[in-house]
Structure formats: structure tokens, C-alpha cells
Design goal:
Layout: H1 5-21, E1 32-34, E2 43-45, H2 47-55, H3 59-69, E3 80-82, E4 86-89, H4 93-103, E5 118-122, H5 134-152, E6 156-160, H6 168-179, H7 189-202, H8 207-215, H9 220-248, H10 252-276, H11 295-304, E7 308-311, E8 314-317, E9 326-329, H12 337-351, E10 356-362, H13 366-378, E11 391-397, E12 400-401, H14 418-437, H15 449-469, E13 477-478, H16 481-484, H17 492-509, H18 523-532, H19 535-545, H20 548-568, H21 577-600
The structure holds arginine.
């Protein structure tokens, strides 16, 4: 049970409201919140206003009745009433120190979820045979952060990489590579990428162009050219479709070649994951192909529940409130992206026993997930094998844009691949860290090349990850390398630097204030302490709303509160040894909360910068 001051106040006022309002107070929120301004105290209770309305009594009178009824012994200074009936609350110094004391444990006061269980996080989701692009970067970074946050509160998180490894696109590349006679044992990613693009181009008929050419009497030569292109496209599609049928039927040599494409793609994904420092490896791969033997079972179940209807040879699921049904089997008998997703939900909830499945996928797939989730619910898969209700949630994210608000390009002007972005970020971080280390006053002065490179890498990668996580994920986001690697502003390096500065202070003091009596007298000490006490609630809010940016915002607030504290309250020249040790203890606790938060965002926290 959480016993931080805010929760204790809420409980105390809940009881007082019942006492004052009797049955009228049932279900009423005491509305206890952190105070808007420090002048108003630390917290306020606004519940008197609502209760007064119910009781038809003047709100200030009800506020006074609540104050008379509430038991705040050992918790608050005598409260006062402000404005129409707000109750301002100020923690007693002992209560504040006691609360900080209580959170100063290895878990920093973060309480486990009331209902822990298996949570599946569907992240990364790269498509085999294509370079990973920045969209998959978002899915991977946000997915990893959510996984860390949910693990932090006690869930058993299963990361699953739902690879696009089983459909027409991959069959098209496979056909292309084979007809080009490429030696697949020597295949590399650029060749694979090139084959992907040319396979797509060859198979794209230009019907509109042909119609236009005919309408404009463009001349027989042009028309013949377009006709040939379209015939070629149809032939290529036909050949790719045949390849897919053979692959799906288990043709051994095709299977072996297919595996080579997967290996090449996944080597690059592994490399990117390692550089990003995300927990994602082969053990998390759960490609579309792994569901191939389960798709028919999904269809059988939908039919048995009378959910699926034949429509011109295809099979669809209708929704009363939607114009378009969900297609689950094509008229040629082929299954679709949605069918695989239904199979994945079935496996995750009925076999893995998940209580929650979170899909970290581009916001443009919103309708897909709405349909698939509703179909899964109708099919009975939103109750897991253990009888627990399962939540299916789409953690949608927006697109990555360049500083010009157009799709992202690299410095060289080509479409940005993930690898090129990471190279650039590491390069920028390292340059900045090296530049700073030249100053003799810098804690990094004199460190070895290797140590500096390691810090530079942490800064560059941390910058990219933080930029991705610090805004509301669902919004489009502008990838601006200059801004994200800066040591000032709302950036990863700013927070990393704040952390490193705390490390420096403690290192120089050779004392972390462990066990010191806390004396929180100055307003900046109080503000910092009150901020630290919000850590537990922040982690839970980020987990519950699937919003890592709440953690980012909180860490910024803490770093700023620390700055204000450090400016106003000398640590080494604190006046007395007791005061100095109390401040060192606060400094160390702040450092640990910051490190914990950065770790939840997957951002490294170097000790020197
Ligand atoms: N491969 C898909 C894409 O690139 C993303 C997969 C997301 N996960 C899922 N279960 N549908 O669009």
C-alpha cells in the first residue's frame, strides 16, 4: 500500500468527507492535489466545494467542518481555507523528512502494480528484406521504454517482434533475386534492399499512365511501351504469387533461400538494437510466418461463432457501426495481415495467458487495430485462458519528419536509413564530449579515448532516444539532430549532464549522506523533496497511460528543482556538518531517481560528462 503524503491526505479527507456528508459523500473525490503554487502550501484539498453543493451549505463552512473532522496528526501544519473553500495543506517538516526517509530504499518508493501479470509488447515489427527505417526506430525505442516501465512495476513483459516475413512482398524479392541469379550466400543488405525496390517497381503496372497515353493519343510507340510494362508487371506479380504459394506449401529450396533473406535482415536489426541499447534479440522474434499453421484455425473459429460471412468468394467480418468489413480471407484462399494479427492475439491470450497486449505501431494503422481488436473480442479472445479480462491496446505513434517537416533525409540527401542516423548521432555526441573534455575543469579531462568514445556514444544515442520519448508519441515528430544533441533545453544530454553533475558533487564530497538526518527547511529543499515524492505516481501514470513522456517531463522537473536547490543551498559550505550531510543525502537520492528514470527511458546515465 502506498503511504506517500498525498495518498495519506487523500485517505484522511475521504474519511472526513464521509463524517461530514454521510451518505451524501459516497463516491465523492476529496480532490487532493499538489498545490498550484508553493505559496499555497504543498497540497490542496478542493473536495469541500463539491460536497457543499450536495449538502446545500456554504463551501467555506463545509471546508471548516472538514478541517475539524480530519485527522492530520503528524502530517500537516494547521491548514487554512482560501478563496471559495480550498483547503491549503503544508506538510510538517517531520512528515516531509519521514516520507523522504521512507522512499530512500533501493526501489525508491515505486510500488508494484496491484494486478501484475504477463504483458505482451509488440514492438519493432520490421519487414524482412527491407532496410529498417525511422518508423521502426520509433516502435523499437518506445516499445523498449514501455517494456522497462511495465517491468519496473512488476509485470512479466514479453517483447515480441512481429516481423513481416510472410507475404507477397517477400515473395516478390525472392523471385527477383532468383531470376537475377544473385548468389544468396553472399547476399548483403544493400543488394537485398535494391532487389526489393526493383521488384516493387517491376510489379507496379501503370494503368493510369496507359489510359492517359491512349486518351492523349500519345503515339503508338509510347502506348506499346506502357502496354509492355503493364504486361511485365502482371507477369512479375503472377510469378511472385506462384513463389509465395510454393513457399507457403513448404518448397524446401525456397524455404532455404527465404531463411537467407531473414538472416541478412535480422543481422542488421540486431546491430541497430545493440547500438540503441534496447533489449531485443532473436529470442523475441515472433514473425508472421510462425502463425502460418494457426490461420486456418482462426478462420474455423470465426465461422463457428458465425462471425464471418462470405462475400464474393472472400471471407469478411462485419461491424454494425462500420462501413467496411474486415477481410480475413481473400477469394483466392490467401490469408491477410489481419488474419495473422488475429492468430497472434489468440496465441498471446489463450496460450501465453497475457492480461494485456500492447501494440507499438504507427498511428496510421489505427483502423486496422480497431477492427482486429473488436473481432478478437467477439471471438472471445479478450478473456485469457485463466479467465482474466485482457486489454488490447494500440500505443500509436506519429511519423518522423525532417526539420523541413517533410519525410526525413540524411545529410547526403538520401532517404534516411536507421543505420545512417545512428552513425550520425554517435558522431555528433562524440564530437561534443571530446570538445568539452578539452577544458581542464571538465570531469572528463584526461580520460582515455576509449572512455570518451563510450560517453560520446551514450550521449548521441541518448539524444536520439530521448527526443523520441519526450513528446507525446502519437504526434508527428521532427527529427532535428542539432536540437537533440544540445546540452541545454529539453534534451537527453541535458538530463544526462544533470545526473553527471550530481555524481561529481558526491564524488568530490566523498560522502553520499547515507543515514543523515534530513533537514528540509529551505523552500528549494522542500520543493525538491516534494518532487521526489511524486516518482511512484509518475511511473504508474506512465505505465497506465502508456506514456513514457510523462517520465521525461518528470525528470526535467526534478533536474530543474535540483538546479534551484543547488543554487540556493550550498552543500559543501552548508554551515554545519549535519546540514551538509542532509543535503548530500538529498543529492544522492535525486541522483538515483534521475538514473532510475533515465534507465526506464533506456537512456544511459554516464557518471562523468
Ligand atoms: N510489419 C508491420 C509494418 O511495418 C508492423 C507490424 C506491427 N505489429 C502487428 N502485430 N501488426 O507495418
Amino acid at each position: 500500500m502506498n503511504m506517500d503524503p498525498e495518498s495519506r491526505l487523500r485517505r484522511a479527507f475521504e474519511a472526513a468527507m464521509k463524517q461530514v456528508g454521510g451518505d451524501d459523500a459516497i463516491g465523492m473525490d476529496p480532490a487532493v492535489r499538489p498545490a498550484g503554487k508553493p505559496e499555497f502550501g504543498d497540497f490542496q484539498c478542493n473536495g469541500a466545494l463539491g460536497l457543499a453543493k450536495r449538502l446545500s451549505r456554504p463551501p467555506r463552512e463545509v471546508a471548516q467542518a472538514l478541517i475539524d473532522a480530519v485527522d492530520l496528526t503528524d502530517l500537516c501544519e494547521p491548514p487554512d481555507i482560501a478563496g471559495p473553500g480550498f483547503i491549503n495543506l503544508r506538510l510538517s517538516p517531520q512528515a516531509l523528512a519521514g516520507a523522504i526517509e521512507a522512499m530512500d530504499t533501493p526501489d525508491l518508493g515505486v510500488t508494484p502494480d496491484d494486478d501484475p501479470g504477463v504483458v505482451v509488447i509488440d514492438l519493432c515489427g520490421v519487414n524482412v528484406a527491407k532496410q529498417m527505417h525511422v518508423g521502426h526506430l520509433r516502435s523499437t525505442i518506445i516499445g523498449d521504454a514501455l517494456a522497462r516501465i511495465l517491468e519496473r512495476i512488476g509485470h512479466d513483459v514479453h517483447r515480441e517482434n512481429h516481423l513481416g516475413d510472410w507475404g507477397l512482398p517477400i515473395a516478390m524479392v525472392l523471385h527477383q533475386l532468383r531470376s537475377d541469379g544473385v548468389d544468396l550466400n553472399a547476399l548483403d543488405l544493400p543488394t537485398l534492399d535494391e532487389a526489393y525496390r526493383s521488384a516493387q517497381a517491376i510489379a507496379r503496372p501503370d494503368h493510369a499512365g496507359l489510359d492517359a497515353a491512349r486518351a492523349r493519343h500519345s503515339g503508338p510507340h509510347r502506348i506499346a511501351e506502357l502496354e509492355a510494362q503493364n504486361e511485365g508487371a502482371m507477369a512479375a506479380r503472377g510469378a511472385a504469387a506462384e513463389t509465395l504459394v510454393n513457399l507457403q506449401a513448404g518448397d524446401e529450396s525456397l524455404r532455404a533461400d527465404w531463411q537467407k533473406l531473414i538472416d541478412v535482415t535480422m543481422d542488421a536489426v540486431q546491430d541497430a538494437s545493440d547500438r540503441l541499447g534496447v533489449t531485443l534479440g532473436p529470442e523475441h522474434n515472433c514473425g508472421e510466418s510462425t502463425y502460418r499453421t494457426e490461420l486456418q484455425g482462426v478462420i474455423d473459429h470465426l465461422q463457428a461463432c458465425s462471425m464471418a460471412r462470405e462475400d464474393q468468394g472472400a471471407l469478411v467480418v462485419d461491424f454494425p457501426d462500420r462501413e467496411r468489413p474486415l477481410l480475413v480471407r481473400k477469394s483466392d484462399g490467401g490469408f491477410l495481415y489481419a488474419t495473422t494479427d488475429l492468430a497472434a492475439i489468440r496465441r498471446r491470450t489463450q496460450v501465453t495467458d497475457a492480461i494485456e497486449c500492447i501494440y507499438v505501431v504507427d498511428a496510421r494503422q489505427k483502423d486496422h487495430f480497431r477492427d482486429v481488436f473488436d473481432a478478437a473480442d467477439q471471438a472471445g479472445w479478450c478473456t485469457n485462458a485463466g479467465g482474466h479480462t485482457v486489454q488490447l491496446r494500440h500505443a500509436a505513434f506519429g511519423s518522423v519528419l525532417g526539420p523541413d517537416k517533410r519525410p526525413l533525409k540524411t545529410r547526403a540527401g538520401t532517404n534516411a536509413t536507421l543505420a545512417s542516423l545512428l552513425d550520425e548521432a554517435i558522431d555528433r555526441g562524440t564530437t561534443e564530449v571530446r570538445r568539452r573534455s578539452e577544458s581542464e575543469a571538465s570531469p572528463t579531462h584526461g580520460l582515455s579515448d576509449e572512455a570518451l568514445n563510450q560517453i560520446g556514444r551514450a550521449v548521441g544515442i541518448g539524444a536520439v532516444k530521448y527526443a523520441d520519448l519526450s513528446g507525446d508519441a502519437v504526434k508527428d515528430y521532427v527529427f532535428d539532430m542539432d536540437r537533440m544533441v544540445a546540452f541545454e533545453g529539453d534534451t537527453g544530454p541535458y538530463l544526462q549532464y544533470a545526473h553527471a553533475r550530481m555524481c561529481s558533487i558526491l564524488r568530490r564530497a566523498e560522502d553520499d549522506g547515507c543515514g543523515a538526518d534530513l533537514r528540509l527547511d529551505e523552500p528549494q529543499e522542500r520543493q525538491l523533496a516534494l518532487g521526489l515524492l511524486k516518482w511512484d505516481a509518475t511511473v504508474h501514470a506512465a505505465a497506465g497511460n502508456l506514456q513514457p513522456h510523462r517520465i521525461a517531463g518528470y525528470l526535467r522537473e526534478i533536474a530543474e528543482a535540483f538546479s534551484a536547490f543547488y543554487q540556493a543551498c550550498p552543500v559543501m559550505q552548508a554551515g554545519s556538518d549535519d546540514r551538509k550531510r542532509s543535503r548530500l543525502r538529498l543529492c544522492d537520492l535525486t541522483r538515483r531517481v534521475l538514473a532510475d528514470g533515465l534507465n526506464l527511458l533506456g537512456v544511459e546515465a554516464p557518471e562523468r560528462m
